[in-house]
Specification:
Layout (H helix, E strand, L loop, with lengths): L13 E2 L8 E3 L5 H4 L3 E5 L5 E5 H12 L6 H12 L2 E3 L6 E3 L2 H7 L5 E5 L4 E5 H15 L12
Antiparallel strand pairs: 1-7, 2-6, 3-4, 3-5, 4-8, 7-8
């Protein structure tokens, strides 16, 4: 994946890898360049897993650390997000092991869907992704510009 100075990595697309018997997943080829130096996988929202490049996670962690410890929602988010985080290094075949606790959290079985979500990738159980997608597809066209100010 190419990089432009000052531009963050961008993960795009939808892929259908398989989880092997050892709990490993092969990264989509388009993600190899960004993730070959290491990655962090952690709990995501809606019961998926978030995958960040090591550098991207480091930058995100710096922002998280700025949250006031006196804010209960901030503490709750920090605990859930970071307690599940696992630093992984892809092997020579571009596979990495998804820890058992994270596989259980996301309900991962053999069939996976990996999506690019901009600054990170997400790993979903395929059945869960298909349910989520079908529920969200109809409302996608109704989302107003207030969700992302200035987008359209």
């Amino acid at each position: 994946m190419w990089r432009v100075k000052g531009v963050e990595p961008m993960f795009l697309g939808t892929y259908a890898p398989k989880l092997d018997d050892k709990g490993r997943v092969i990264l989509p080829a388009k993600f190899w360049g960004e993730l070959e130096g290491g990655l962090v996988v952690t709990r995501g929202q809606e019961r998926c897993l978030y995958v960040f490049s090591a550098k991207g996670f480091e930058e995100l962690n710096e922002k998280i650390r700025e949250a006031p410890i006196t804010n209960k929602q901030g503490r709750d988010f920090l605990r859930m997000f970071l307690s599940g985080a696992s630093a992984e290094t892809p092997d020579g075949q571009h596979r990495f092991t998804v820890p058992a606790t994270l596989r259980a959290y996301a309900g991962l079985d053999r069939d996976l869907t990996v999506i690019g979500a901009g600054a990170h990738a997400e790993i979903w159980d395929t059945a869960a992704w298909e349910t989520y997608y079908s529920e969200q597809e109809s409302s996608f066209s109704e989302i107003s510009e207030e969700v992302i100010p200035g987008l359209f």
